[in-house]
Amino acid sequence: MSENNVDIALIASLVRDDSIPEGMGAIRQKVIEGIRISDEEARLLFEQAPLSFLGMLADLVRNRKNGNKTYFNRNFHIEPTNVCIYDCKFCSYSRMIKHRGDGWEYTMEDMLNIVKKYDGQPVTEVHIVGGVLPQYDLDFYCELFSKIKAHRPELHIKALTPVEYHYIFKKAKVSYEEGVRRIVESGVDSLPGGGAEIFHPEIREQICADKCTGDEWLRIHELWHAAGKRSNATILYGHIENYGHRIDHMRRLRELQDKTGGFQTFIPLKFRNKDNEMSHLTETTVIEDLKMYAVSRIYLDNFDHIKAYWPMLGRHMAQVAMSFGVDDLDGTIDDTTKIYSMAGSEEQNPAMSTYDLVTLIKGAGGRLGKGIPCTTS
Ligand code: V47
Ligand code: SF4
Q1: Backbone phi, psi, residue 83, to 5°
Q2: What is the pTM of this model?
Q3: Cα 102 to Cα 109: distance, rounded to the nearest angstrom
Q4: Whose CA is nearest to atom 4 of ligand 2?
Q5: Which segments within the chain are labelled E, that is strand?
Q6: Percentage helix, strand, coil, to 5, in the chain?
Q7: Which residue puts its alpha carbon closest to atom 15 of ligand 1?
Q8: 19-45 pLDDT, tens per residue?
Q9: How far does residue 95's CA lie from ligand 2's centre (Å)?
């Protein structure tokens, strides 16, 4: 019996029949047997399962997939601009185009200089994402990606979301298929999970009506996977959506993953309420955050990894989340992102050394994922 099986047997035996909340025995049995849970069962977990029960089930799935290994990436971000033509109500980061004097707009040279700043340093990934502006068009980005690849071929480029791609493909008058072919050729290695928010139109129309739809987001990822590439997926939770919308979101991802197998990791992003048009909303409790990690780990049975983005969650909560399904942490970051500090995260200048991350993982009783330092993104 492998080390992982011992863990699973132990956890399964810990959830004694007489301690199982009413109506949840069947769910527990399914999870132990590796059988997919339904949308209704996910709803029951969200609405009625005690946190400790959720934690045990999520940990069982996490252990089955990854043992007690936790992965992380050594990365830095480039945020080309914080000016944006769109008007997402939850966004604390962007300055509308009419106030563009308050924001920044990097040139190609600025961005290449950021990449060069990391020459000789052991980073493995650059994460590029920011606002949407007309001068950052398809030709601009393809040139940027090719130049980064020419400068440092082994650096993994995780760049732009379907929000940007939908805009730049349309502006260049190319089909999604042709656009995806061009970005593959220019050297992009993977797509980050951003821009997904909540797919359901009922919510999307209220929080981010003017950017790509949920179906368009999914279609671009589908074509990206068809090109043999991998990507991530997020959910922005804890605002005006209900559990039904969260489950609908995860169902669409699970269905696409059944088709393509191209998603690597799912990243729940907790809505932060500072300085945006949804600031009147109260943020979710830590209990709700752990629930979100656990239910997604249990429901998304075809995703290998669940990621905690510690600059958003806080490093200590990220450590706790490792007992609720999380096996992937992003990342060393090196204080190169403003998205969360501007939205009210406790982490105002997010940066962790490899040593810090290793200490954090070991402190939570975890082992390092094979090949560390490595990236799952
Ligand atoms: O799409 C914006 C979110 C996302 C707020 O793929 C907010 O490895 C909370 O997607 N409160 C961008 N969230 C970040 C992102 C990401 C991060 C780390 C790793 C990966 C990956 C992807 O940030 C946006 C949006 O959903 N966001 N404003 C806010 N106020
Ligand atoms: Fe623009 Fe992204 Fe902010 Fe929306 S979330 S306003 S697309 S920067």
Answers
A1: -95, 140
A2: 0.92
A3: 21
A4: 88
A5: 69-73, 75-78, 83-84, 95-96, 125-128, 156-159, 190-191, 230-237, 263-270, 305-309, 328-330, 367-368
A6: 45, 15, 40
A7: 194
A8: 677 779 999 999 999 999 999 999 999
A9: 9
